[in-house]
Every structure is written in structure tokens, then in C-alpha cells.
Design a protein that fits this description.
This protein is of the alpha+beta class and 249 residues long. Helix content is 42%, strand content 26%. It folds into two domains: 5-140, Regulatory protein AraC (Jelly Rolls, Sandwich); 144-247, Arc Repressor Mutant, subunit A, CATH 1.10.10.60. It has helices at 100-111, 118-132, 147-158, 166-173, 177-188, 192-209, 214-221, 226-237, 241-247; strands at residues 5-7, 13-17, 22-28, 31-45, 48-52, 56-60, 66-81, 94-97, 136-137, 140-142. Strands 1, 2, 3, 4, 5, 6, 7, 8, 9 and 10 form a ten-stranded mixed beta sheet that branches. Helix 7 crosses helix 8 (226-237).
Length: 249
């Protein structure tokens, strides 16, 4: 990434972003929690991307070079935390589950960032406690560094509905299925089916934020049927895509 802006203090605020709007590449000396109260937020680094709907937040450690991308009308809540406050002890961006209480704490804390009252300090303490208890979610889509994987992943990123097998894709990328399978394990730490499912879920969240019907999302992302997509979505996020679409606006 080039033209990196340095913002020493990670802001605490609420910010609205129009569909497709972005916050360019930057870094903070502080940790940051980013939460989309409405819409879908994508955070991208050189290591990959993390996409979070309204039931998830993204932890961004201090010093991480990253950019934000809005999908749908985005209501963004930003919570900056000094490096001394690392309730998660995490050194890489991570998606966190956001329950009803944590959601209200984040919204309330970002509503009045200039408030230095004792009440706000207590609110912050409870917020940190809830962050410590938040389950981590495996919603990271890593970016490959191996040239062969870059070629293959670019093919699928351009068309997530591409249902070709690893052998068939390998013929286009110029490698055997065995070689590519080994690279997925060593370079990305996951299997090819796991990576493709992550890619499709990320793409599905973007389409849902754009009000694309569930059946169309399933088709455009490569699921064999709407029911297969709904089942995968429910197992990943804990609810159906229709429920999420209704509650995220």
C-alpha cells in the first residue's frame, strides 16, 4: 500500500459513509474498534480483508496499515483505545461477534466522544469487559503471496460463481491440483474449499448490502440453490440472510 496517512490518535466517533465510499489507507498509533451499525464494512490490509455486517465488529491493532470500504449506507462507529488498553491481546485484525449489550455500549460510547465525565469512564470500563468476552469469528479472507495462488484467486474473485474444481482451475493457472492444494495450506492456512466459501460469503454480504434479493445472491456467489446459501449463511452468522437484511437498515 502507498500514500499511507499517519493518524497518531485513533478517533472515537460516529460517521456516515455513502455506498461505495472509502477511507483511504492509513494507520493509527492506537488500537481501534470499527463497527457498522448499518450496512457492511470491509477493512483491507496487505494481509487480506475482513468484512463485517451489523452483528460483527473489527478489531484493528495499533500500527496496522488499513483502509475502509462502505457497502450499502454505512453507519460507522469508531472506538479508539490507547495501546495500554488491549483487552483482546490480539496483534492482527480480527472480527468479533457483537451481542445486543456490546452494540448498545459502542453506539452510546461513540455518540458523545468529547464527554469526559465519570459516567462515561464507567461506560468505557463495561465496554472493555464486553470486548474481552466477545467471541472471535473466522471471517478473514487472506491475500495470497504465492504467484500461482494470486492467479487462481484473482479468477475466482472476478467471478465467485465459478464452480470449476481445483483441477480445472489449475489447468488455467498452470499448476496441478496437488500443488495448489499444498499452497493453500502453506500460504493461506486453509483449504481451497474454505477459502472459496470465505470469498463467497464476503461477496454475498456486499450484494445483500446493495439490496440484492437472496436468490440472486445465491446464484451470483455460486451456491447450488438459495437454500444451500441460506444454510451456509445461518451456520456462519447465526441467522438467515433475510433476517440480517431486514435488521441492518
Amino acid at each position: 500500500m502507498t500514500n499511507i496517512r499517519h493518524q497518531p490518535v485513533a478517533p472515537t466517533r460516529t460517521q456516515s459513509l455513502a455506498p461505495g465510499a472509502a477511507i483511504d489507507t492509513h494507520r493509527h498509533d492506537d488500537h481501534q474498534i470499527v463497527y457498522a451499525g448499518r450496512g457492511v464494512l470491509a477493512v483491507t490490509t496487505d494481509a487480506g480483508s475482513w468484512v463485517a455486517p451489523g452483528t460483527r465488529a473489527i478489531w484493528i491493532p495499533a500500527g496496522t496499515v488499513h483502509a475502509h470500504q462502505a457497502h450499502g449506507e454505512l453507519e460507522l462507529h469508531l472506538v479508539g483505545l490507547p495501546t495500554a488498553d488491549n483487552p483482546l491481546a490480539l496483534e492482527t485484525p480480527t472480527v468479533l461477534s457483537v451481542g445486543p449489550l456490546l452494540r448498545e455500549l459502542i453506539v452510546a460510547y461513540t455518540r458523545s466522544p468529547e464527554d469526559n465525565s465519570p459516567e462515561r469512564a464507567r461506560l468505557r470500563a463495561v465496554l472493555l469487559d464486553q470486548l474481552r468476552a466477545s467471541p472471535q469469528e473466522p471471517l478473514h479472507l487472506p491475500t495470497p503471496t504465492a504467484p500461482l495462488l494470486r492467479t487462481l484467486c484473482a479468477i475466482l474473485s472476478a467471478d465467485p460463481s465459478d464452480n470449476r474444481t481445483l483441477s480445472e482451475l489449475g489447468r488455467e493457472a498452470g499448476a496441478s491440483a496437488r500443488t495448489l492444494s499444498r499452497l493453500f495450506h502453506t500460504n493461506l492456512g486453509m483449504t481451497f474449499p474454505q477459502w472459496r466459501t470465505q470469498l463467497r460469503l464476503h461477496h454475498a454480504l456486499v450484494l445483500l448490502a446493495q439490496n440484492t434479493p437472496v436468490t440472486a445472491v445465491a446464484h451470483q456467489c455460486g451456491w447450488s440453490s438459495a437454500s444451500a446459501f441460506i444454510d451456509t449463511f445461518r451456520r456462519t452468522f447465526g441467522h438467515t440472510p433475510g433476517t440480517w437484511t431486514h435488521t441492518s437498515r
